[in-house]
Amino acid sequence: MSKVARDNMDARRPQPSPVTIMIGLEAVIVAVTEGVPRILSVGHTDHALSPPEHGVRTRPEAPDALPFGPLDPSADCTLDQALRGWVSEQTGLSLGYVEQLYTFGDPYRDPLQREGGPRVISVAYLALTRECVPAREQNASWRDCYTYLPWEDWREGRPQILGHVIEPALQQWLTGINEPSRQRRQRERVDICFGFSGSAWDPERALERYQILYEAALVPEAWPQDTPAERLPTSPSGRPMALDHRRILATALGRLRGKLKYRPVVFELLPDTFTLSQLQGVVEALSGVRLHKQNFRRLVEKGGLVEESGGTTFSTGGRPAKLFRFRREVLRERPAPGVRLPGAS
Amino acid sequence: MSKVARDNMDARRPQPSPVTIMIGLEAVIVAVTEGVPRILSVGHTDHALSPPEHGVRTRPEAPDALPFGPLDPSADCTLDQALRGWVSEQTGLSLGYVEQLYTFGDPYRDPLQREGGPRVISVAYLALTRECVPAREQNASWRDCYTYLPWEDWREGRPQILGHVIEPALQQWLTGINEPSRQRRQRERVDICFGFSGSAWDPERALERYQILYEAALVPEAWPQDTPAERLPTSPSGRPMALDHRRILATALGRLRGKLKYRPVVFELLPDTFTLSQLQGVVEALSGVRLHKQNFRRLVEKGGLVEESGGTTFSTGGRPAKLFRFRREVLRERPAPGVRLPGAS
DNA sequence: TCAAAAGTGTTATCCTTACACCCATGT
DNA sequence: ACATGGGTGTAAGGATAACACTTTTGA
Asked: Which segment of A217-221, B285-289, B340-344 scores lowest on mean pLDDT?
């Protein structure tokens, strides 16, 4: 090996440092049942089950959290394997589709570091599963992901919370910005992300929206640890989560919404055979918008995404529906097969 | 804090382990000049400048590497800030657009771990920059990214190397797979990724293609460290890089190609004003395919992506060209503004 | 018989693609 | 004059979005 390359190698040797590093693996495990997109969450207490009211001053003491497991650096496995391992151990779920989302490494994102603990770097994953097996752990359960991000669900029209709570609060935040050019930039960003002032609502921008709410301190997660209860600003609702887990959830939702359009990931969430309404229901649940029935059906059928399985189901409430299955050959035919959302420009 | 939540916290405390963890930040820094997409690479020796011949048995002793810097866990900054910091320190470049790509954590991906060194987790970033400032470091330089991934450049038609080297080598690899169902699955995967057997070429699948070449041991990076020179399989060309850096490069290229279509990232690589040909040249350089001139122009103009700046340039070789600039307002008007490639289904 | 959900048909409109052709400069 | 690259017009085909309408079940 040449001297140059050896020098580069040497640069990688660890410097002595008082702070050690820990890798945490966090998983957003998604399943859709009866039109509800659910994620597996742990650590919540039962008395906290009722969702907080809009605008109520609140700071839950035992917030929900995403399931996670530490990485054993001496273990002889990849990050993915480690993740699958502890998820199966803790919950009994064997994950199918798994995708790395993002690595979060802000200092002090875990309060433990303040107490002299290690610096925790979290590698977040998105996992999709068909079954909602009740988790093996006592304190884990499947929860509607829109309890955490209620402004993301537009299926019943524009969510009340946007007009009643979020828009005025963000306007107030914007007027509080002194520097004019900064204010203009932020106003544009808010308009684009939240669809204010005539901008369109883009379901994929879930992370950017959460990020803005965080910067504007409209989510309890952004408030300092030691804020006295009476000085807390009002929460724009949405159930909080531990640490930055809601940010991770928003990342997962945005990524999944994007992926729907160009990869056939929906089928990871459906049984082998399904009706077109079921398929549409899952897409709607995840994207958070309603789709035009006839056009949706034509798109997936003529797009070669599904084929009739031959069977029919009578459990529809109306006329029996044909059963379909995913048509794998589409992978050969089209470069980016997925379910196009309207206005996907 | 409730007992449940506290238990969760405690699970995050570090276990005693003989193996320590190190975080490395690696950057794929991209710039496009004169139609060549370049990345900043370090650590190569001058005598290795000539590209290896197709099919030559070779194992460069001082491979090129991506620039990287270790994360100081006690430093009070985010991963992004740390990255910008050492890039500016080492190269003098101040990065504009920066995006996290992926975190690589396979054990023993760095041979140092075998020698009892720490487990290295690499967080890879994609960074775009306009200027090709000659790097401050002696052994850093800008290099055509297709020297590393020659099969990805279809601008002059289908690359020779695909038909002459890669396709036969992969066919041989496939016939060597004993289990029939596995062989069928892998054959389908190869066809889809490389566009064999009538499948279309999808520029975005750069990572999947590299991954296959790696699994088929067609890149030197996949060969065992101690392979004697005479037993080395033939390389399907493409200049190798250190560790898994070529995989990181492939990740970056695929991601960038995808992003071009729905986010206006090209403009991060162009000066403030530019001609439409320059714009097209950059898109072509990155996507690796030629685009239809007139349609491209109409798409970006009627799509509201650019506006005339008023000026013209005479350094074209033909008729002077109007200068354009990026039209920021498009962000408001369209949910996902980008440059559509042909056949984007 | 009616509600509910499945499924079919048709049309106007826009966007993509491909082709042919003209324009302004340097040599 | 001509080569070179910049720029315009137009027509065919396909995809999208919005309509109204029929069919088949359970209650």
From this structure: B340-344
Strand partners, B40: B142
- Torsion angle, CA of A272/A273/A276/A281, rounded to 10 degrees? -50
Alpha helices in B38-166 (DSSP H): 79-91, 160-161
Q: What single-letter DSSP state applies at residue A64?
A: B
> What tokens appear for B229 in the block?
């020179």
Low-confidence ranges of chain A (pLDDT < 70): 1-18, 44-62, 108-115, 133-138, 225-236, 342-345
Cα A219 to Cα A217: distance, rounded to the nearest angstrom:
5
B69 versus A18: the higher-pLDDT residue is B69
Instruction: For residue A74, give the nearest of B17, B42, B71 by CB distance.
Output: B17
pLDDT digits (tens, 9 = 90+) for B151-175: 999 998 899 999 999 999 999 999 9
Burial A148-165 (b: 16+ CB within 10 A, else e): bbbbbbbeeeebebbeeb
Nucleic strand C contact set for B 249-308 (CB, < 7 Å): 292, 294-295, 298-299, 303
Q: Does B302 touch chain A (CB under 8 A)?
A: no
Q: Give phi and psi for B295, each to the nearest 5.
A: -65, -40
Contact B119 A14 (CB under 8 A): no
Q: How far is the CA of A319 from the C1' of D22 (A)?
A: 12
CA–CA separation, A48 and A240 (whole Å): 11
Most confident of B39-53, B166-180, B321-335: B166-180
Where helices occur in A61-150 by DSSP H, the ranges are 79-91
Cα dihedral A38→A44→A46→A47 (10° resolution)? -120
Element housing B23 (H / E) = strand B21-33
> DSSP class of residue B86?
H
**C-alpha pair distances (Å), B116 with each of A1, A263, B21, B26, B107:** 19, 41, 12, 22, 12
Provide the pLDDT confidence category of residue B54 given band limits of 50, 70 and 90. very low
What DSSP letter does each residue of B170-213 carry, written as one string?
HHHHHHT--SHHHHHHHHHHHHHHHT-TTPPP-GGGHHHHHHHH
Q: How many distinct helices (H) and strands (E) make up chain A?
A: 10, 9
Q: Give me B257's structure tokens.
A: 């190609």
Q: Where are the beta strands (DSSP E) in B34-173?
A: 36-42, 68-70, 97-104, 119-128, 140-144
Tokens 């005598």 correspond to B47
Domains of chain B in start order, with CATH, are 9-147 (3.90.79.10), 151-253 (no CATH), 264-333 (1.10.10.10)
**Least confident piece of the model among A331-340, B83-92, B231-240, B245-254:** B231-240
DSSP conformation class of A51 = P
Nucleotide nearest to A308 (CA to C1'): C7
- Torsion, Cα B170 B173 B177 B183, to 10 degrees, reads 0
Residue A232 burial (CB count, 10 A): 15
Test A19 with B121 for CB contact under 8 angstroms: no
Dihedral over Cα of B141, B142, B143, B149: its sign? positive
- Judge contact between B288 and B154, C-beta under 8 A: yes
Alpha-carbon torsion, ordered B68, B73, B79, B81, to 10 deg: -90
Q: Containing H/E element for A296?
A: helix A293-302
Give CA A267 to chain center in angstroms: 18
Residue A343 burial (CB count, 10 A):
12
Residue B62: half-sphere exposure toward Cβ, Cα within 13 Å: 18
Please report, for residues A18, B22, B277, the alpha-carbon distance to residue B75 in angstroms, rounded to integers and kept in the order given: 11, 14, 45
Task: Kindly state the percentage of chain B with pLDDT values over 90.
Answer: 50
pTM for this entry: 0.88
